[in-house]
Amino acid sequence: MNNRNYFIIIGFFLLNSSLFSKSIENGKKLYNEAECQKCHTSDDYTSKERKVKDFQKLQWRVKRCDFTMDAGWFDEDIEDVVHYLNSSFYKFDTNK
Predict the structure, then answer these.
(1) What is the dihedral of CA 29, 93, 40, 19, to 10 degrees?
(2) CB distance 9 to 49 below 8 Å
(3) 57-70 residue pLDDT tens
(4) Which positions ≥6 away from 25 have C-beta within 8 Å?
(5) pLDDT tens digits, residue range 9-38?
(6) 81 and 31 Cβ atoms separated by less than 8 Å
(7) What are the Cα distances from residue 75, in Å, to 13, 54, 60?
(8) What angle do CA 66, 69, 75 make, to 5 degrees?
(9) H or E stretch including 30?
(10) Reported pTM
(11) What span, in angstroms and rounded, lies between the C-alpha atoms of 85 and 58?
């Protein structure tokens, strides 16, 4: 493999990590704008008795909250909130 290919591969990974961090920032912004903390505290996310036990359940719960609260989020927004909550609190392995 030549040097150009290495730069393309490195650039791809840097771009993807940058996009992922932006989605987390956007998720935090959306979470705060929707005032999710009116119903949820960090204890809801970190408690041993928490209802969300895996990444799929987290996705489902965020979709349910979007619908219930009529936040008007697009699918990408929901995923951003899911990634924000997962990176900040849940720490589920998403590579399964």
Answers:
(1) 0
(2) no
(3) 999 999 999 999 99
(4) 84
(5) 655 554 444 445 569 999 999 999 999 999
(6) yes
(7) 24, 19, 12
(8) 15
(9) helix 3-33
(10) 0.76
(11) 9
Task: Read off the tokens for 60.
Answer: 């489902």
DSSP letters spanning 59-72:
HHHHHHHHHHHT--
If you search the block for the tokens 């399964």, which residue do you land on? Answer: 96
* Burial group, residue 31, by CB count within 10 angstroms (0-12, 13-18, 19+): buried
Show the tokens assigned to 31: 């979470």
pLDDT recorded at residue 17? 47
* Phi, psi angles (nearest 5°) of residue 4: -60, -40
* C-alpha–C-alpha distance, residues 79 and 82, integer Å: 5
